[in-house]
Amino acid sequence: MDLPTLIQTIANSVVAGSVYAIIAVGLAMAFGVMKMANFAHGEFFMAGAYVVYVFYALLGWPFPAAVLMAIPIVGAMGVATERFIFRPTRDNVMAGFMATAGLAFILQVLVGQTWGVGLMRSVPTPYMGAMDIFGAKIGWQRVLVLPSAVVMLSALWFFLYRVKAGKALRACAQDPETARLQGIRIGRMTMLAMAISGASAGLAGALMAPIHPVTPYMGHGVILTAFIIVVMGGMESIAGAVLAAVLLGFVHTFVTTLFDAVTAQMVGVAIMALVLIVRPQGLLGRVKA
Amino acid sequence: MFVNWKTWLFLIAVLAVAGAAPFMVRAYSTEVLILFMINLILVCSYRIPTMTGDWSLSHVVMMGVGAYATALLSKWWDLSILLTVPLSAVVAAVVGLILVTPLIRTKGFGFFIASFALGEFVRLTWVKFRDPFGGPRGMIGIPSGELGGIDFFEPVPYYFFVLVFVFFSLLVMYRIDRSRIGRTFKAIYTDAELAESVGIDVPHYRALAFATGAFFAGIAGSLLAHRLGAVDPKNFDVTTMVYLIIWIVVGGTSTFWGPIFGLTVMTFVFEWSRPLLEWRPLLFGGILIFFLVFLPGGLESLFGKLRERFFTRKPLGKGSAGSSGT
Lengths: 289, 326
Prior knowledge:
The structure holds 2 protein chains of 2 kinds.
Chain A: H1 3-34, H2 41-58, H3 63-86, H4 93-115, E1 130-133, E2 136-139, H5 140-143, H6 145-162, H7 164-174, H8 176-181, H9 186-208, H10 219-233, H11 238-258, H12 261-278
Antiparallel strand pairs in A: 1-2
Helix pairs in contact in A: 1-6, 1-7, 1-9, 1-10, 1-11, 2-3, 2-4, 2-9, 2-10, 3-9, 6-7, 7-9, 10-11, 10-12, 11-12
Chain B: H1 5-24, H2 27-51, H3 59-76, H4 81-103, H5 109-128, H6 130-133, E1 139-140, E2 146-147, E3 150-151, H7 155-178, H8 180-190, H9 192-197, H10 202-228, E4 230-231, H11 238-251, H12 257-272, H13 280-294, H14 299-310
Antiparallel strand pairs in B: 1-4, 2-3
Helix pairs in contact in B: 1-7, 2-7, 2-8, 2-10, 2-12, 3-4, 3-5, 3-10, 4-10, 7-8, 7-10, 8-10, 11-12, 11-13
């Protein structure tokens, strides 16, 4: 591997890691508060990409506005999922998870029937040109992902550690019963967690829309990656999810460059299996009493 | 084995209906019946790991292992169908044992996700290695098999061949359900810690349940591969897995009959929804959500409720033990 290729691959890894982090943080957060994962998280990613497709490519809005639209729209989908699927199935771990698999089917069909299944929707790249570092070219569209991830994660950190509602959310994740005794409304908090979770998946999808092929089935590959990251990071640890996302971003990109995409997925799964055997609580997860 | 004359009567009736069925319907429906029979083994085998509470998301991949084993065995060594089916089941059971070794270290949620990921790993090996497994397009040209001069390419003889396997598989699985092992599985589901404290080796029994399920899924996969004449890695992806979950959720899992009932109902729904092809996943997804939210015990719990209301003098009071809470 010569120097430009190496730099190119490192840059791609950082971009991939940033996107993975945005996606997986939402999944880990929802898991922390609800002890329940959303199988349709990949479809939320897909929905975010379609929001950009509709507002930017079809209606001609400016790209940043279309990306920002994805946050409330997919966030609202998260809230609806919490209200109509997770809340009624709260006492059964399996039921909520499986029901969101049904939701994934529904979203795929609705999107496919509205905007077509066959060809991928092309979203023109809003920022042409590329950044040149030592002969490696990275498109501006990709470069954009990194600051977006940093802003999003900082905003999330600020919310969780400095804002009262965010602290309540963490309290809920640590000990729901005690949190309730403090007067925190659990229902509100799970709703908030799913709103943030949906928004994060939507944001990632929106940012990737001009790069990633936009199809109703684009969530498939995403969900497996997101699950691997969350398991590696320790299920409910947000910092663990970010760390695992960056690691997996590097692993996936390097293996894809050196071998191929299928091998990269296999290596990712193998790492996850290894983590489960050697350190079942994940990289930054705590052991529960 | 069966002391009860009612059981005998029931078995004879079922076999008589099953034996007459291919002569009562059109050729196309015989194909549907064959697939139904294969799915019957699959759905009942899936109930075995779920008895311990392990809702594996790699069960369809275990079926795929059986299918690929059959493809390799019959294409390379030209083995008879009488050998490929049991050998494929053994291969699936062995792969199941290997996969379950890391899996039993996880429980509840971690188990779902880890089983999903490990299943994908197996499936991706088929996609990756073109040499034995045929790559992303799978393998074709698997012989339909023949036995004593009867060509199983014809649907009706193959139907009866499958029927024999279905009968014995279901018989064994029914006995497992009723045996001490089956009750041990259920004990693990009800309270794993309590089960452990009375001396049940929980990881051992969870692994056993998983491998047993994989064994029968392997039979189903083998029978499917011989029928279709081809294996495709896409047939064993998570979408198929969700369909399997829909069957078992619609029927319910607390009794042996729940999954069978669910499969029967959903096969009719599947066939009737043929005109709405593109909308079918939406319909099935909606059904899945509906059942999980409003009827988590499945249709079988409905029967329990009806019986409670109309036929029993004293209330049962227990309801279904299967899908409620952990």
